[in-house]
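pinging the channel bc i need a second pair of eyes. not urgent but kinda urgent?? the chain im working w is below, pasted from the shared doc
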Amino acid sequence: MPSKCYIKPKYQPDLLALHRACSLNYLSLLKLLPNLDCGGYFFFHLDNACYQIHVIEQTQYTSVVSIETIANKISCGESVNELTPQIKVRLYHDAQMAEVLASRQIRYFKSSYDYPNRLMQQPDEKYQINKYLSEWLKHCCNDGRVMRINQGAS
């Protein structure tokens, strides 16, 4: 009896799920940072760590912010640093969406990846990183404390 060969269908991105995650990211970021000005720094204390959110670019329709860990009380070695956020996000004000542009060593996310690949990225890597940001921002909104530092204040 011949064996049947199963060919897995090519991954199709779930655009509705990605859109929901990006919309949630936008709303959460605006809740945390109601006044976005270019050059502004915001600091969050959350779960024994301090995170910096920096507005690095601002135009009429978009803003770009970077999110990174600047202090962590957990001393488990370098592996902890790899688990903490270092993300660049673009906010699209007209579409009310915020999308992850880069994360750590990845400078650009394709809508889908063939698997396996050289960097072992998952087929839905773009969705996963945006969903991760949604969950992290939700945690910040619920449990974090924000402090704003104005640049150039006298």
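so DSSP finds three helices and six strands in the chain. and Residues 41 and 54 are 5 Å apart (CA to CA). — does that match what u expected or am i reading it wrong
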